Structure formats: structure tokens, C-alpha cells
Task: inverse folding
């Protein structure tokens, strides 16, 4: 899911808003959608909490299945025809279709979530889905269960307020997105018409701290690898550190050949296939609002990594690939002291890729780099790979989403060519070069992939209203 | 405890030895010590297993107290007068004294053990003290409970066979050795006569694979530190890796400034105080037997670390300081994939020091080095520090130990100026510049500080006999 920009992360809690149902007697309701939402808010929130309580992390087959069934049932409740596609032993792809019209909007979502660890940092349980301060706190509330659900609820709301949908909406809800969508291409190939559509409404999306909707028109690819070193048959007493090989040192030395102090990746050939932005694209991104100070406050950092200034950071977030250590471990990491030479060390690295980098090719380049630098003893295990995808900006879908966002969220929308994150849009949009867009409710402090993930209900209703508007506008948008 | 050389790690199990008690009827007994041991072997083994079953790891106050009490009781059973010295809240120093004569031998031991983790790698529980294949398998069996106990049992055996001890033996048994002996100086200062003696028999000691006793005449010092980086208030989605600071990368970069590919430590001033060996010392160590191939087989390594040849490794093990990563951790280290930018990273490093390096000064040098290289954000926490100590070779104690070892272990002894490991000999021997020596039974594959630590019973009886001989010889040794 996207990291990109910011919102209302310290917005007033929902209960103080003038649109609160408790004020029905005080304020006249003229907008039928408002009236509909007012009478369904509690149910919609309960539904989201229900879904968030399912701990659908990778590897928890029962929870993933429960989440898939929940989604299928919810789609049927919204009058979608549903189908399921399966690859043996893997989470199902849940498909739901409804509405009619000339255009088909493919709504690409996922019901799996990132691991909730480290649990001790959560203020309330990640699968409790606590409501406090106008927010819902749960793993997946932002990425991506909230986004998934509001798009279904928007179908219901559209019908309740405007009548039958003027477009066909096809939900593709997978269960392996956080694990690299390894089987999505295979699942989609079971019915090639699944990707026949006019554009894709993708997962996620955000509203910045100033309340501006950020519409993402693409995402980076990813290569997730593990590097493992075994330097000896077993750990040894560190009195032998003069001559017994330390796996941790070995891994540190290997890692140090990967990235320069300015963040440039030193793996030979790494940038060869990178599609450089045009001057116009660069200028567009440079002049987009960027809440650098909000990000710095949230993360309590004095400056950005790799010595990047604000605008450099913004441009890099869209156009630059990365080499990120997601985790590293070796030896004794408990309390106290243990004087041991570790015989094993492991690091997890995710490379975020930009068009036209290929995960497979990057994997081969990393292997060749290690060999060339004398690290043949470092094992490389590729865990997942997804191609990057950047859709076009000049498209009816983007125009419709922009108009819907500005109408319902009330500020100028930012069109961002690519998220820093990854979605499997290559698999969905690649064949027909479809435009894709987010229209979401994340906020800069939402904590996707981190402890205390949460969404602001205020944003939730805005994004839901915007999605209803999109369904209507996209039908006729030029 | 020492890492140094090698023994009988695949020796035949004890039960097949001709000296086994079951063969009493077959073989005439002429040696009274043999006869005494034959009738006490089962009890002595049971005692060691009892002691090893106490999980006296740092931080387990109850287990440490139980081990201290066990030792005091065992000392009293060997007719020692016992005392205990305490610093509030810390493990006791147990003192036991017995015998008389012109000389006093200070027997420096410890009842605490290294953490047994990782538990899953143990073939039998670390505190089960299983007996199999002629060995006892337990955390602490080698380091240092076996050595501790056999020196007490040797007092009993001496008296049973030869009558009253001709020397005074003073046991100083501490409970913080594996944690840096932080309070030992303070405990010893409570009675300054505790370190008044003629020489010190220190913990540990080993017999190499060829059966040669290795007598260690000193040990390295240690500085154990943690480096901690917090790069952000919390973890972030790795889509932001273009500009959000990764604590793991930061730590890897800092670590990379510490050691050159040849193992030389790059911290400015690190070698300033190192006492270089004399040509004679170098030649002595170069020509000592060194079972490089045995070590390489045990650890399944093709060559030594830092590109060191066999003799270089031997010389370095005695004279070179080290900078060892004992553990490192950051971010997501579970199964599967999580795309996170870690906000925290931690590494544990032990520096083994040689005379005249001071742990306090090295700590200051590391801090200054980090600051100079732009890593002011890396916190340094010093966890323990012990000065190195190398005693003289030309001393009656060393001559007595060598003679006792060669007589009872049956091969030429190797006089090794320093262990790769650390003991608190500075605190015990520093004031009076006492000689110190090991006379032990460890073997190259004993696994001190590692899973499956064990001792070979065959070696145990040899070292016990040698200790009995030392008590007698040292009384009159010139």
C-alpha cells in the first residue's frame, strides 16, 4: 500500500462533527447521501471492525479463508454476483461483479494483512479493532480492509441514493498482496476476461494533513530477498574471534557493498532499465504539495534519509528505486551479555523497483554482485517479486477520480504518478495498459505495516462519498 | 573461559577404560589415587551433574544463589572454612580456605554460566546434564562448573591419599564472571588479604586433540558494548525508503567503519597501548603445537577468518585484540515477508583486549570514533569491562603445573601466554603481579558459550589427578 502523502492525523474525533447522527434534529438534511450515511454509520463501522478482527496474515490459512468468505458474503449482500478462483493451498481470489453500462471499473483490493508484530508496541490489540479518538485501530484498517470495504459500501450507498449503478464494477479481492501476489497472474489467467475493463480503482489512497486527496496513478515493483550466511558449523566462544569466521561480520561487509551514503544503489546494472522521468513529469512532481514537515514530525526526524532535501525526497519517492533492510538478525540478541561468534546471520531486503525494472533481473544482478565482490558464500533466497506499473494520467478514470475527490474531500487533488509502495497492477492493467487510480482515506500517520495502524472515521466517510461520486462520474467522463 | 587449543573430542567413552571400577578384580591397583578415584567416580560425577542442573545464568538471582550455596556446602564438605562476601543484590563471592604451609594457591573460579540460548540447538536440555558417550552435556559443564568442582574434589582426594595439604588453598568462587565480574574488585576489597597469595590457579584449561595439556598463563581483557540506533519515532512502510531513515542501514554503515577486511580494527587509537610481544615471545608462540586442522574440522571451515594462515591465527589468538559482533537485530526477523523500515537497531560487540589496553579508554575511543565518522546518533552503552592480564612464565607455579600436567596427562605441556578469552585475573593477581595458570580438562569441541557444551569424563579424571599433583608439587617447587 502507498506510503505517500499525508492528512488530518490529529483531526477532531468523529463524534464532534456536525454531521453526527445525534444532530439530526438540529440540522436539516438536504443531501440524500448524507442522510443515507447517517442512518448506516454504525452498521458500516461494525462491519469494518468485524473484518479487521480476522487476523488474515500470510501463513494463517484459516484466517485468510475466513476473510475471503467474509468478503464474498459482503459482496453478495451488496448484490454482486460472486465467484472464487483458487490455486491449491493458496488464498482465494474473490471476484464480485455488479452494475451495468459501457464502462467497467476493476476494483483491485486485498483481504490479507501484514504481520502485526511487534505486538508489544500496540496500544490496543491489532485484532481488537478498538474505536477511540474518532479512529479505528487495527492491523489492516488502512491497508487494505478499510479501503476494500468502503468501495463495497459505496455500491450499496449509490443504489440507495441514485438507483442502479451506471457502470459495471468488478471487484478482484486477493489474499496474497502483502506476500507479493505470487499467484495472482495464475488466478487471473483462469478467466482472461477478468482483466478486461476500462480502468482500475486500486487499493489504498490517502488524504494529506492539509486535507488534500492524493491520487496515486501507479506503484513501484518489489523484489523481496533474504540473504543468509553460515560461517561455521556452530557458534563459537568469542575468544576465538581472532580467527573463527563471524557470520554477522560477513553479512555486514556484504551489505556495505549495496548502497552508497547518498542512497544510490551500487549493484552493477541496477539502474540500467530504469525509465527516467521526462522533464514534464519531473516538474509535475516537483511542484506537487509535499508535507515534508508533517512527515518529519510524525517520524520525529530532523531530516530525510540519504541527505535528501524535501523536493529531492518527493521526487525520489515517485521515481527512485530503493534497497531497504526490512530486518536483520544474528547471534545473541537477548538481555545481558553473551560472548559468542555467531555462525549464522540473515537479512531481509526489499527492493522497490520502478518501470521498467524486472524483479527477476534484479535478483540475478544482486547474485552477480555478491559473487563479483567475493561473497559467493552469501546465500540469496528470492521471496517475492512484483513488476512496477505506472498508468497514464491523461485518462477519463483519472479525471473522474480527481473530480470526485475534489467534490467530496473539498481540496485540490494531487495526481501522483507512483506510490512508494507496491500493488499488483502490472498483472491487472498491464495487458490493456489501463489507467489506475487510488481514491482513498489513509493519512500520513496511519501506520500501515507498523504498530498502531488506524484510520480516521472522518476520512472514511469522505472517501466513501468520493467513491459513490466516482461510480457516477466515470460512467460518462470524457 | 579459554578457547584455545584442543583434545580427545572423540575419545572412547569412559566406560571402556581399563581403569573402570568394574575391572577391579582383573587389574591390580597399585596407585592409591587411582584406587581412591575408582571408588568415588560415581559420586563425583553425580556431584557435577547436580551442580550443572542449577541454571545459574546472569539475571536468574534464585539460581545464582542456589549455585553459591551449593558451592559453599561442597567446600565445607571438603573441610574448607567458608565465608561469603556480598554486594547488595549481586551474586555472592564464595570463599573457601583449607590446608597450610608456606605457599598459598588462590583458586579462582565461577559458578555462573553463559545463557543457554538458542535452546533448540541442544541435543539434550542444557540443564539436564545428560551423560552419554563418555561425556556430560550441560551448560557450564566445561565453563566453569567442571573445573570448579574437580579442584575441590582434588582437595578431598589429596587428603585421602597423601594426608594433610602441604599448601594453603583459597577458593574464590564468584558469580559474575560471565557478566564481566563487575563487582569482583569491590568484593575482594572487603578483605584485602583475599588476594594475598603466591599464585593463582584459574578457571578453565584444556587438553588438545593430541592429548597435550594447554596451560594458559593469562587472558585477554574485554569491553562489551551495545550500540543502539533509533532513526525514527516508529517503524514505517518501506515504500518510504527513498527518504525515511532506516536504523538498520545506519548501524551497518557505522559497523563498517570498525574493522578492515584483514581484521585490523580501524578505531583511531585502538592499538596505541598494545604491548607488542617480544621476538622471544613471538617465537615461543609460533612454535607451539597448534591443531589448526582440528579446529577447521570442528567448525567446518575451509580457512580462518580475516585471511589468517594457521601460524598467524595462533599468534593472533594470543597477542591480538578483537572486535566481535556477538549479536545484531533490527526490524522484522520472523518467517515470511514484511516490508518495513526499522526505526531501531541494536548490535552487541565484544572487544577482547590485550595488555595494556584499558576497557574504559577503548570505550572512549569507540565513542570518539563514532562521533568523528558522523555517527553521533549511535548510542553506545558499555555493559562490562575487564582488564587483560598476562602473568609471567618463569614462576614456581607454572613449573609445578607443567610438571603435574605432564605427569598425569602424559604429554608435553604447551605454555600459552594468553587465552583468547577473559578471566578476572587482573583483579586477583594485579596487586602482587602473581603468576596464574590453568590446569584443566576442556577440549577443542567442548562448546563453551555455545549449544551442546560438554566435557569428556576421561579428561575430567586426568585434570583431577593433575590438580592433586599440583597441590603437592607447588608446596616445594623452586
Result:
Amino acid at each position: 500500500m502507498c506510503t505517500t502523502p499525508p492528512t488530518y492525523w490529529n483531526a477532531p474525533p468523529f463524534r464532534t462533527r456536525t454531521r453526527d447522527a445525534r444532530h439530526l434534529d438540529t440540522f436539516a438534511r438536504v443531501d440524500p447521501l448524507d442522510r443515507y450515511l447517517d442512518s448506516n454509520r454504525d452498521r458500516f463501522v461494525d462491519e469494518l471492525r468485524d473484518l479487521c478482527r480476522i487476523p488474515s496474515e500470510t501463513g494463517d490459512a484459516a484466517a485468510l479463508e475466513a476473510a475471503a468468505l467474509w468478503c464474498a458474503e459482503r459482496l453478495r449482500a451488496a448484490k454482486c454476483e460472486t465467484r472464487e478462483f483458487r490455486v491449491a493451498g493458496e488464498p482465494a481470489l474473490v471476484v464480485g461483479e455488479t452494475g451495468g453500462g459501457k464502462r467497467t471499473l476493476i476494483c483491485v483490493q486485498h483481504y490479507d494483512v501484514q504481520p502485526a508484530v511487534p505486538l508489544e508496541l500496540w496500544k490496543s490489540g491489532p485484532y481488537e479493532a478498538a474505536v477511540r479518538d474518532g479512529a479505528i485501530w487495527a492491523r489492516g484498517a488502512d491497508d487494505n480492509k478499510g479501503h476494500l470495504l468502503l468501495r463495497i459500501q459505496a455500491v450499496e450507498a449509490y443504489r440507495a441514493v441514485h438507483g442502479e449503478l451506471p457502470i459495471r464494477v468488478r471487484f478482484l479481492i486477493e489474499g496474497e498482496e502483502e506476500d507479493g501476489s505470487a499467484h495472482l497472474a495464475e488466478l487471473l489467467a483462469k478467466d482472461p476476461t477478468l482483466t478486461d475493463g476500462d480502468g482500475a480503482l486500486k487499493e489504498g489512497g490517502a488524504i494529506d494533513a492539509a486535507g488534500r486527496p492524493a491520487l496515486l496513478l501507479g506503484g513501484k515493483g518489489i523484489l523481496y530477498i533474504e540473504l543468509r550466511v553460515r560461517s561455521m558449523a556452530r557458534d563459537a566462544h568469542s575468544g576465538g574471534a581472532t580467527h573463527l569466521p563471524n557470520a554477522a561480520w560477513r553479512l555486514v561487509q556484504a551489505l556495505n557493498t549495496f548502497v552508497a551514503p547518498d542512497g544510490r544503489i551500487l549493484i552493477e546494472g541496477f539502474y540500467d532499465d530504469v525509465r527516467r522521468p521526462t522533464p514534464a513529469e519531473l516538474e509535475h512532481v516537483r511542484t506537487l504539495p509535499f508535507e515534508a514537515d508533517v512527515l518529519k514530525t510524525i517520524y520525529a526526524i530532523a531530516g530525510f534519509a540519504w541527505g535528501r532535501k524535501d523536493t529531492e525526497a518527493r521526487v525520489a519517492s515517485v521515481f527512485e528505486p530503493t534497497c531497504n533492510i526490512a530486518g536483520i538478525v544474528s547471534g545473541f540478541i537477548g538481555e545481558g551479555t553473551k560472548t559468542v561468534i555467531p555462525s549464522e546471520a540473515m537479512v531481509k531486503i526489499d527492493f522497490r523497483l520502478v518501470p521498467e525494472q524486472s524483479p527477476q533481473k534484479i535478483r540475478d544482478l544482486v547474485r552477480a554482485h555478491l559473487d563479483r565482490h567475493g561473497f559467493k558464500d552469501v546465500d540469496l533466497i528470492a521471496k517475492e517479486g512484483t513488476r512496477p506499473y505506472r498508468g497514464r494520467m491523461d485518462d477519463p478514470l483519472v479525471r473522474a477520480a480527481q473530480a470526485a475527490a475534489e467534490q467530496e474531500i473539498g481540496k485540490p487533488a494531487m495526481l501522483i504518478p507512483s506510490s512508494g509502495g507496491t500493488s499488483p497492477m502490472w498483472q491487472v492493467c498491464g495487458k490493456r495498459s489501463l489507467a489506475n487510480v487510488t481514491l482513498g482515506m489513509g493519512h500520513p500517520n496511519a501506520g500501515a505495516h507498523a504498530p498502531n495502524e488506524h484510520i480516521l472515521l472522518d476520512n472514511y466517510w469522505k472517501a466513501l462519498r468520493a467513491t459513490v461520486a466516482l461510480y457516477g462520474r466515470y460512467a460518462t467522463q470524457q
About this structure: The first helix of chain B runs from residue 32 to 52. The CA atoms of residues 13 and 134 of chain B lie 4 Å apart.
